[in-house]
Amino acid sequence: MDDLLIRMMRWGQQGYSCSQILLLLGMEACGQTNDDLVRSVAGLAYGCGAGRATCGALTGGCCLLAFMARDDGGPALAAEQLPMMLQELTDWFEARVGQTHGGIACESIVGERGPAAARQTCGALVAETYHKVMEILATHGKADSC
Fold it and tell me: Which backbone phi and psi does 76 adopt, to 5 degrees?
């Protein structure tokens, strides 16, 4: 088990959701903390709470891209390439997850069991999503934009 998975498991055991864990990983990489931001993305978890909306790993990954993809104009400005990067992540997620599970809603991925009963599925998906976000950032020259 690698260090990334250990950190993810610790946060999961503390009650953090998929979307929160993705943001925590990004903030940790940037040497930042923001409890209000982490708390706010909890609303993305389990398909915005009911399981029927898009998986929090994808929406959290999109938030992570926006958080990390900064323009040279300052930390508050999103990179010009952000829409393209978001599309790349969404396309990858739809191909990787949607084809396997029949959709990208949480309910499609974990079924009626909910995310707590599907920790292995969700954990692996969050880790893959984090790696994909980092790959997309690197491809667009934004890997060190913290």
Answer: -85, -10
pTM of the prediction? Answer: 0.90
Q: What b/e sequence results for 13-31 when a residue is b if at least 16 CB atoms lie within 10 Å of its CB, and e otherwise?
A: eeebbbbbbbbbbbbeeee
Whose structure tokens read 């809603």? 105
In this structure, is the dihedral angle defined by the CA atoms of residues 37, 39, 56 and 136, taken in order, positive or negative?
positive
pLDDT (tens digit, 9 = 90+) per residue, 95-117?
A: 999 999 899 998 888 887 766 66
Neighbours of 79 (CB within 10 A): 21
The rounded distance, in Å, linking the Cα atoms of 118 and 109 is 9
Q: Are 4 and 130 in contact (CB under 8 A)?
A: yes
Q: Which helix (H) or strand (E) holds 74?
A: strand 74-78
DSSP conformation class of 104: S
Query: Could you tell me where the DSSP H helices lie in the chain?
Result: 3-13, 18-30, 35-40, 45-48, 56-68, 82-93, 99-101, 106-110, 119-139
